[in-house]
């Protein structure tokens, strides 16, 4: 039932034909009804989450930056340089345990996927709003040393800063490409730390990007907390260690459906699903696709996420992308293949609007 073939970009595509089967009318109506209820519930939960969350610092400045960026990259802009605008989220959100936070729960993510994907989206002609966790991996800095940035530089006898010869090319490329993206108004970076900041920034970006219609895209690679301590239940000061700590975490409301249906309803939505148990990965990714009405869900397993992902698309396509052994060089990240496929899917999606 599953056919495998090799495409010219070295990806193994597996298309599960069962997923293309037309559904019965009853099934469709049930799905529509339950989605309506789910959407109403999600909207209510999201509204109360925002009402109770600590307000975002510099909200007005961030809003202005995002609006200007979106306007600069909108169709009406005279100097339009991008084919689409993508919001890439990257890194893990934290859940503070105290309002004056000393301790927090964190989520696994280095930000490498988001940073690499940003570079490939820019290369493909997109403008990128990079919403990233403070301190996580940055676009064009992936090849710089992790431990000491200073290892890359030296000081000449005249006191001038020099790049060590062996790193010369990497640093020049990084500086040139980064500045070119920023100077042309194609890269906007917005940092977050907590789940509260992340969701407020996402809402703000999404509502601004809704003006772009189908040219907008969301590539949600950030590892977002599922559980949190509501602000009003949180200890104000550092929790004292006077015995075992009992904590009750609430569920973070499901923003994906609200993003898709309310904040930016025409944008192309891609979310990620990470699991450690391979037995449930595809089932969970499929559930996300249906429940949150995403256009694509990228399923990956913790043990193999750098070398294998499965793309499940809303039209039933299921593509397995693998980093091959022959790709083992710095310029052949799996993200290069993922972005190529997603850009093609997004073009097809935009074409359906152009025809209408
Ligand atoms: O940031 P990174 O490169 O270390 O990891 C990327 C990832 C595994 C966090 C990402 O591919 C992903 O699956 N994000 C969604 C995680 C989630 O299910 O919440």
From TrEMBL:
Residues 205-330 form the DNA/pantothenate metabolism flavoprotein C-terminal domain. It comes from the Eukaryota. InterPro entries: CoaB-like_sf (IPR035929), DNA/pantothenate-metab_flavo_C (IPR007085). Keywords: Signal. Pfam families: DFP. GO terms for molecular function: catalytic activity. GO terms for biological process: coenzyme A biosynthetic process. Gene3D superfamilies: CoaB-like. PANTHER family: CORNICHON-RELATED. Belongs to the PPC synthetase family. This is DNA/pantothenate metabolism flavoprotein C-terminal domain-containing protein. It comes from Vanilla planifolia (Vanilla).
